[in-house]
Amino acid sequence: MFFLFDLVGGLFGLAIIFVIVGLVTGNLFFVVKQQHAVIIERLGKFHRIVGAGFHVKIPFIDRKAATVSLRTMKNGFDIDVKTQDNVTIGLEVSAQYHVSYEMGTRPSESGVYKSYYMLQQPVAQMRDFITDALRSSIPVYTLDEVFAKKDDIAKDVNATVSEQMDAYGFTLVSTLITKIALPAEVEDSMNQINAAQRTKAAAQDLAEADRIRRVTEARAEAEAMEKAGEGIANQRKAIAIGIKDSLETIQETGVGNAEANQLFMFTQWTEMMNEFAKSGRASTVVLPTDFTQSAGMFEQMLAASQAVDAAPVSQAPPVPPVNSRLDV
Length: 328
Known about the structure:
The chain is of the alpha+beta class. It is 51% helix and 22% strand. It has eight helices and ten strands.
């Protein structure tokens, strides 16, 4: 009995000593920060995982093996790959990841446990996985397709690498292709091709614009000519109606057709000469001195009416005309 009391007392004293030593050395109590987890090992063997808050451990028996951050981290990688059309390009890849939050049914199935005990260089391993995935997927695309489908390629790579990194306790949040670098000669060639295509497109646009302008002008000219023709036709129709009405009015006075035509033509000629005089142009007009002989001036204009007229037209003996000059 006394032996048991001595044993209990010895253990209690030993515990008091551990507490005092722990307090002095700071190895008894510890605090874990938010978004972090601490792995506790007891005598070199995994013991437990503790989260954020205040905790106690046995000095010299328990130790903090590692403090694992649960925040999302980012790393960038430069990777060289070759496209389907044999162009070597440089990709800048950005990966966002964090330690898996899964706890599992056993501590060994948690993301914190696997991230610490199963993989020593997670960033280097993730780079290898991403490089392998890109060099497997990029060669099936041409250079132009890589530019057009880089987001789809990044999503496929992220899905593949996420599955691989999950086995080591890491969750790959996203994989982004942030830049595609081309060799200098390839970039110059692409710029020249783009410049040529833009020049060709500009020339085609200018040609199309010129064609539209020409067509529009031709249509406008055709419409103008059509309207002008309609105007001339209406004018001639109106003149013809006016002439008809004038001849009918003259004939109502008892004047014959031939005399009416001559009178009408002479009247038209007189009006024309008046308008010509009013125009103010400096010109020379030759007029006959004897207007009794002026009927010959209208012979050509009245040829048609005289041809159908059966009555002969009497003319006076020819008198040599004496012309005078009238300056207007």
